[in-house]
Design a protein that fits this description.
TIM Barrel, 10 strands, globular, three-stranded parallel beta sheet, alpha/beta, 18 helices, five-stranded parallel beta sheet, about 400 residues
Length: about 400
């Protein structure tokens, strides 16, 4: 393929055409009822936009939270879209969704956008969004300690095969005292002291939920202060419960490291922040437990280079995505270049982390453009050195980046 024949066009076309496996989201299939969030009012009241609107239109926090969702959405639309241009990534994402749905964002009328959703049902809209975003499957975030979600899992249900499960275990690791009470309530013979019998019951609990959910991984969102090994309940449960069960069932432990919870409690979910973490913890886990697989994403930009170097040393580590505050085009570009240069195609460049179904549209629209541009530059570099990449090779490479690397890691 010669540079003159349109390598840029061919790479972008290839990247756009590959259906993606989105390995981390917070969306659900329709079995979960109201836990599946979708539509313009949900988009506008996403926590990124809530944090942003308080910067320009401050009010007592509870006054905002006491508003009905529609009024919250109106408030955000007014202050972030009408009174100023929606140039932030979160605001631009809403505009992208509106446009990709065939609506006209330039008329500025929220009522017209709401009309689009008036007679829509969730099943129909899932098909629309998956088509617009070219997503073939998503991995949910499934927490058995959430009463509403647990009730759904306890029923017999016909699962939508496009929605795969991930077993979320934050409560088990970070709030053992409360989790212990829950496990006892559910019939597990546990006590606060993590003796041999209690640890065996925790392993039984994890195994039971693996059988029920068939998760692709077990996951936890962890603070920047997370260390391992240590003798806390978190360290003990990881060492003697989580990792043995993971080895037995060939299920990775996915660690999302670096979130400071509720730095500003008044903002609720929008009040979380970021901190730099220690890569030594990841190194120790990968080194001491070669029979386990680890998926890792870190929230601080300052952690990314060291994490890439660590991934070069341990084949049981797969790094993924540009998480949360990193999901901005300038940082996605930087991280994707760094990862390709250090790891080649043996990484997952992006996941959506979508909490609202509609966000699959904009997060993959924006990410594909950035990833494609990085790949264009890399293939041009290869051409300059005499290595011409064929169209089939482009498709192969894009398939690896948008799901193949993850599936190979899972099956290996």
């Amino acid at each position: 393929m010669k540079r003159e024949t349109g390598i840029a066009e061919m790479v972008q076309k290839t990247v756009d055409s590959i259906p993606v496996l989105d390995i981390h989201t917070h969306i659900y299939d329709t079995n979960f009822g109201d836990l599946l969030l979708w539509g313009i009012d949900e988009l506008l009241t996403y926590h990124y936009l809530i944090a942003e609107v308080f910067r320009v239109a401050p009010m007592p926090y509870e006054e905002f939270w006491n508003m009905p969702k529609k009024r919250q959405a109106d408030h955000i639309w007014k202050h972030l879209f009408i009174e100023r241009s929606p140039v932030s990534e979160a605001c631009r994402g809403v505009v992208t969704c509106i446009n990709e749905l065939g609506l006209d964002p330039s008329d500025r009328k929220l009522s017209n956008i709401r009309d689009y959703f008036k007679d829509m049902n969730a099943d129909e809209y899932i098909d629309i969004v998956f088509g617009k975003s070219n997503v073939r499957e998503v991995v949910m975030t499934n927490n058995p300690f959430d009463d509403a979600e647990r009730a759904v899992w306890e029923k017999k249900m016909k699962r939508d095969k496009r929605f795969r499960a991930a077993l979320r275990i934050d409560d088990l690791l970070l709030n053992w005292e409360t989790a212990c009470g829950k496990l006892a309530e559910w019939g597990y013979d546990v006590e606060p002291r993590l003796g041999d019998w209690t640890r065996s019951e925790i392993r039984r609990f994890l195994t039971d939920w693996i059988k029920k959910m068939k998760p692709v991984y077990m996951a936890a969102s962890l603070p920047p202060t997370f260390t391992f090994p240590d003798d806390s309940p978190c360290g003990t449960i990881i060492d003697s419960c989580l990792l043995p069960v993971g080895r037995e069932h060939n299920i990775p432990f996915a660690m999302m490291i670096g979130v400071k919870k509720l730095l500003n409690p008044g903002l609720r979910l929008a009040g979380d922040s970021v901190g730099k973490a220690s890569i030594a913890t990841v190194e120790r886990l990968c080194s001491d437990y070669p029979g386990n697989k680890f998926l890792v994403t870190m929230l601080s930009r300052e952690n990314q280079h060291e994490l890439c170097v660590t991934a070069r040393k341990f084949p049981n580590l797969l790094i993924f995505g540009c998480w949360w505050f990193l999901n901005n085009p300038s940082i996605v570009e930087e991280m994707t270049r760094e990862r390709l240069e250090l790891l080649g195609l043996s990484m997952i460049p992006q996941h959506s982390d979508a909490r609202i179904l509609d966000q699959l549209i904009y997060k993959w629209n924006h990410s594909r453009k950035v990833i494609a541009q990085v790949l264009i530059d890399k293939y041009r570099d290869l051409q300059d050195d005499g290595w011409n990449v064929t169209e089939n090779e482009l498709k192969r490479d894009a398939g690896i980046l948008f799901g193949g690397a993850f599936e190979s890691f899972m099956s290996g």
